[in-house]
């Protein structure tokens, strides 16, 4: 990864600093239901406040598609943000124009304002030059702290970086450093675990990883597609039979790259994915024709634990089983605990991400113990695919 400028190099005292945040938080009936994203923004805002910047926070919320949709206003975020950073937060009803200028002009060094939803204007997603200019008129310095939006080349995530001095915020910096430690310059050997339901959603991830890691563990529903491609009968399991050739291609590519691929050797099977269903552990070559594979089995878990012990770095996306329903969470939880223990001992650098993966690690109670958990969703996956993220590229230099 190329180098990027951090806040350590920014001179912000008395300056208007436009901070691109991701305040697209879960909300229900106008109330914030999960403030994680707001909390993760706090280090950057507190740093800027301490340095006596005039802080102007920009964000999108949902997809109003260029129109003012009242349900998609950022206004309900104001009290939550104020509480998290322990400071007053002014609010402007629009992110550009006279109203925004009035609020920004009134800021004193160390003050904070939040501007209304960027996506109320079409220019945001269009990365439109006139809109970029309108935003840039409100600031002297640009700080991007929204890694989760960095896979989009929008006005506030990419365009602004070319017209104002641009820096990575603390959260962006933490994310980029964690990701670099997992793939760009990792301690070897490196293991990747890829699970989840389908390989069709993760073909680019798998193709990139086989060339970058020493060991690729495939679990979850997508392992069935690989097993089927190797002639294993997976019964009624979720399986993308039409992708057998693609799966064999990935295995071939792994072989050429010297990447060892590890597939489950046993499985927990049941008639279907429902609470209280009867389950059995079977050898992977003995899956009954009328049963579904819903988790990796105990022998597979032991193999993985052993291999983890020999690795220095782990990158994990995708649960190993249908963890939402017990007891099919057992494989994922066992590995989560093993990863947490190794990380705790200082023996492993562990980086994980993905919507369901984060939920599974939270449910396993280990999220605090991993080296880094990315909540960036789409941007995290695109990074795992080896793609260049426009919002990150724009900060390089
Ligand atoms: P993430 O959101 O972390 O990227 P995915 O969305 O790719 O992960 O995959 C998560 C989903 O995969 C979960 O809903 C889980 O139930 C499902 N899954 C895992 N293993 C199986 C399986 N053996 N059969 C069916 N679904 C599975
Ligand atoms: Mg998912």
Topology of this structure?
Elements: E1 16-20, E2 27-28, E3 31-32, H1 36-50, E4 54-58, H2 77-85, E5 89-92, H3 97-105, E6 112-115, H4 122-126, H5 129-136, E7 141-144, E8 166-168, H6 170-184, E9 190-194, H7 203-209, E10 215-218, H8 220-229, H9 244-257, E11 260-262, E12 266-270, E13 279-283, E14 292-296, H10 298-309, E15 313-317, H11 330-344, E16 349-353, H12 355-363, E17 372-374, H13 378-384, H14 390-393
Parallel strand pairs: 1-4, 1-7, 4-6, 5-6, 7-8, 9-10, 9-15, 10-11, 15-16, 16-17
Antiparallel strand pairs: 2-3, 12-13, 12-14
Helix pairs in contact: 1-2, 8-9, 10-11
The structure holds adenosine-5'-diphosphate (ADP) and magnesium ion.
Residues 355-356 line the site of magnesium ion.
Give the strand line-up of the largest sheet.
5-6-4-1-7-8
| Helical residue percent band | 25-40%
CATH class of the largest domain: Alpha Beta
Please give the count of helices.
Answer: 14
Structural class by sheet pairing and helices? alpha/beta
Poorly predicted runs of 5 or more residues: none
* N-to-C CA distance: 11 Å
Query: What kind of sheet is the major sheet?
Result: 6 strands, parallel
How many separate structural domains? Answer: 2
Gross morphology is elongated
> CATH superfamily name of the largest domain?
Phosphoglycerate kinase, N-terminal domain
Mean pLDDT: 96
Describe the structure.
The chain is α/β, with parallel strands linked by helices. The chain has 2 domains: 7-171, Rossmann fold, CATH 3.40.50; 186-384, Rossmann fold (3-Layer(aba) Sandwich). It contains 14 helices and 17 strands. The strands form 4 sheets. The protein has a 6-stranded parallel sheet with strand order 5-6-4-1-7-8, sandwiched between helices. Strands 11-10-9-15-16-17 form a 6-stranded parallel sheet, sandwiched between helices. Strand 16 (349-353), helix 12 (355-363) and strand 17 (372-374) form a beta-alpha-beta unit. The mean pLDDT is 96. The structure holds adenosine-5'-diphosphate and magnesium ion (MG).
């Amino acid at each position: 990864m190329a180098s990027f400028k951090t806040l350590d190099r920014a001179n912000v005292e008395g300056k208007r600093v436009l901070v691109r945040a991701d305040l697209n938080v879960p909300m229900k009936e106008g109330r914030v239901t999960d403030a994680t994203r707001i909390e993760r923004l706090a280090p950057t805002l507190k740093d800027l406040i301490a340095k006596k910047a005039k802080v102007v926070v920009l964000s999108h919320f949902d997809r109003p598609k260029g129109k003012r949709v009242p349900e998609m206003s950022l206004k309900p975020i104001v009290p939550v943000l104020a509480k998290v950073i322990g400071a007053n937060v002014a609010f402007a009803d629009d992110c550009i124009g006279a109203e925004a200028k009035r609020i920004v002009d009134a800021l004193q060094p160390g003050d904070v304002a939040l501007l209304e939803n960027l996506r109320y204007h079409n220019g945001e997603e269009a990365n439109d030059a006139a809109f970029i200019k309108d935003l840039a008129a409100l600031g002297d310095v640009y700080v991007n702290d929204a890694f989760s939006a960095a896979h989009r080349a929008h006005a506030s995530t990419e365009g602004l970086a070319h017209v104002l001095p641009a820096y990575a915020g603390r959260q962006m910096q933490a994310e980029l450093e964690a990701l670099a430690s997992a793939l760009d310059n990792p301690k070897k050997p490196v293991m990747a675990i890829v699970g989840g339901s389908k390989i069709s959603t993760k073909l680019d991830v798998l193709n990139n990883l086989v060339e970058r890691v020493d060991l690729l563990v495939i679990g979850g529903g997508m392992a069935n597609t690989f097993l089927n491609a190797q002639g294993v009968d997976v019964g009624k399991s979720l399986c993308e039979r039409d992708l057998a050739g693609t799966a064999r291609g990935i295995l071939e590519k792994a072989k050429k790259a010297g990447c060892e691929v590890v597939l489950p050797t046993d499985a927990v099977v049941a008639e279907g994915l429902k609470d209280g269903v009867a389950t059995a552990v079977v050898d992977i070559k003995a899956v009954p024709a009328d049963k579904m594979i819903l988790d990796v089995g105990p022998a597979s878990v032991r193999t993985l634990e052993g291999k983890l012990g020999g690795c220095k770095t782990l990158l994990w996306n995708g649960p190993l089983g249908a963890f939402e329903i017990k007891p099919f969470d057992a494989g994922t939880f066992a590995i989560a605990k093993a990863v947490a223990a190794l990380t705790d001992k200082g023996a492993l650098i562990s980086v994980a991400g993905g919507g369901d993966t984060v939920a599974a690690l939270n449910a396993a109670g280990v999220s605090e113990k991993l080296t880094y958990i990315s909540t960036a969703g789409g941007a995290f996956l695109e990074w795992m695919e080896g793609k260049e993220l426009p919002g990150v590229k724009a900060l390089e230099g």
